[in-house]
Amino acid sequence: MRSSTKNTIISILECSLITFVITSCVFIFLRVFKAEGFPSLLLSWTILSCILLFISFRLNKVPSLLPIIIRIFTSLLIVTAGIFLLLQLGATQRSLAEAWLDYARKGTAFGFFSFFAAEIYAIMLIFSVVFIANRKYLTGISIFFTVNFLCIGIISGQQIYLIFAVLFLICPLLYKKRWQSFIFPFVCAAIITSVVAITEFQKGYSFTSEISFDSSNIMQTIAPDFPLMIHIPGYGFSANAAKPLNSVSLSARPIFELKGNPYQTYYFITDKFSAWYGSYWNHEYYDSDEMPVNLFFGKEGKNSISKDTQMIHMRLVEDFYSVIPFTSDTNGILLPDEYKERTITPVTTNTLEISPEIIRGTDIFLLLEKNNEKQKAELSESENLESEVSDIPPKVQLLANELYEKSILEASSDTEKAEIDNIYIKKILSYLKDGFTYSLDTPIAPANKNSIEYFLFESKTGFCTWYATAFTLLMQSQYIPCHMVEGFRTTLNDKGQGSITGLQAHSWPEVFIDGNWKIFEPTPVYTTDNPYAFINSNDKKTLKLFSNNQKTTEESKQNTNFVNFLSSKCMTAILIITLFLIFVATIIFFVIYKKPEKRLVRHAKRIVKKYMRKGISSPSEIGWIEWKYQALKIDNENQNAIEKIANTMIHNLYD
Prior knowledge:
- It is built from 21 helices and 16 strands.
- By secondary structure, it is an alpha+beta fold.
- It is elongated, with a radius of gyration of 33 Å.
- 35% of the residues are buried.
- The model is unreliable at 193-217, 373-387 and 552-568 (pLDDT under 50).
């Protein structure tokens, strides 16, 4: 009795110690790297996983339904966390990981990626709990130190820690000469390494690209605003105009806060596309050695700017961002002084890519050209653009010919071609309003039909990318220079304030006409006083987009702050309640459930049932002495166990 109580107390102390150590490590990781997300939830999961794993292995030989239930619940808890982690891993871009590592090595890491890294760290540490709970202390401790040195080595970039990690991993192997315990971790590492090697991570590329199962509808429904999902085309900040999607779910998470002219609508460009290849657009790359805009840095750069220069003030509120979008009339960009040392690469004539990525809180000023000189283009550029057009669907070509012929008939005999082109543009815009519906869910064209033709002549339902694609192809079919642009369309409020969010992700065409590249808006909801006239009343997803877009920046901020406040309070309450329930459950389990006499009775019942199947009657019928004699007679391998249980039960009966 005393021995059993002592073992129970030791088990409680072991469980408490390992739970405290693992949870403390995760907590320190969250604090050091200033993680933002759901830290209380992660800590609760860590505590619960440690305790349940410990109980599961210590009850491995106890004959009862409770250990089975606990093991099932523990498995579900860990498997669910693993699936959730894999979904995040599939969404994470390499550029985001590189940016976080760069700031982590400088000691300035923060944000949701820090929380994501803490999730990986916590799951890796759980492996050590498995072995310690199974009384394989040396193996468990070695894995604990291996994980910690491995993480320190990866984050710091110093190989000496990786060497220590390997040494701690092989120590128990050399000491006990047992390799079986490490088969599972090595297999997992081999699988992960193989997947990474095969996929060859590139910027804008992720695990989900290799998965044939299309989970976009599920993820768009569950978590379009999830921080790591927003970089996947069609989920958060991009409608992926390069290859028009049939469905998008845009995020309300802000990227930039803006300050400019009140009531002004700005088109911020992130990408341009010039040639259509049947089902996707070819990017229009910037091939000049010169920057498309002037770059200024710090106070020195600010002093060189004219005081009457019109500006747009942008402040990054997302954790990291690699692109500096700017308008077509932007002539210069003012950046903080520390960005002088970074690599800034022009992607298109109105997009700059920066590495390492921009960090939250960075102030960027766009300097606008008053006289649209930047919008003027050489005629040779338009000629090159024409030669790139390669695949106009037949029905689109017929519609274009019909509309252009009508434009010629409406024009007078001495009308110049530019004026005819303007009439043609008006006819296209009019056509795209006649019977068309705006929706974030575009009907999928049948296998035997062209998607653009299906949109223009049958479904007449889609979002901005489809309207802009159709408009651009109709223009290019008549050899009018036109390219499609992707970015953000945002309107500032009466105070000149606004924001760029995924909800404002947009596509539109630019036409080279009258010696300038001019923006046209073919999406009807943006050119009418009543956008709801082009939206079905039962299309809740699209209606939500417009209702969210109508909120002011101040309202959005207040709502976000309030939600964050509630979230932090709720998570703290959940953590406290979870810890209390776990403590109570642990005490009840070890003090009541594991009483020696009850454990003995359960074990005896299991043994009796086992031998009843072999033809031996129950001790209640023949007595424990006769039962022991018959059991020993037919089972020579388990004599010690039979004698121990029988002698103990006889002793308890006559004590």
